[in-house]
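User: Teach me something about this protein's shape.
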Amino acid sequence: MPVPQVDYEKRNVHPERLEAIRKYAGRSVLDVGCGNGAYVLKLAGEYDMKGVDARPYGPWTGKPSHFSTYDGFHLNEPDQSVDTILCFEVLEHLEDPFRILKECYRVCRKNVILTVPNCDVTPAMEKSFMVYSHWIDRSHRHFYEMRSITAQVEEAGFRVAASRYINKVSLMPLMLEMLGLNGSGAWVRAASKFFSIFQKKPYFLTCLVVGEKRSFV
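Assistant: First, the predicted structure itself:
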């Protein structure tokens, strides 16, 4: 079965990541691995925003001066030149993610805000032979759960100021399929709300971590 791939040309701004930016970011922000530049284009009027990625993307033409490319190893920015670095769904793809984290530490004055796919398979998932799709994404070289990503952030020199799971998984499609039901609309929304009342164990796709420079604290 083919694994669904993220279309980075069309990736949208995610509300929980946007909330973290507005809560923790400083005035100047560098989005490392920015893809189509959705966050740069969205927030350019609120922050001093720049984005870098390994290759250019079509939407960059909207604000070409805000974007540049990098080699995946070195950020072409001076030491302590921006307040905050964003690194959303990037580290798992890199040959040497720790090297980029150290680069983030060098370049930022305040903090890094990052997300990685949550690869923490629970005992019940394991017994049911179920895993998150990113476990079998061939573009992923590294697999994190909250403990391992926070440890790597700290090893790079940051203090973990905040960490939480985002992207809660909806089990409704699975439940409907198990029951042989199809449909959409009000009754599905009602069933989803009813099911959520009884669901005690949430499942999340993503780990979000904010790492502060110790010199800033």
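Now, about its shape. The mean pLDDT is 88. The CA atoms of residues 121 and 130 lie 8 Å apart. If you'd like, I can walk through any region in more detail.
User: That's plenty for now, thanks!
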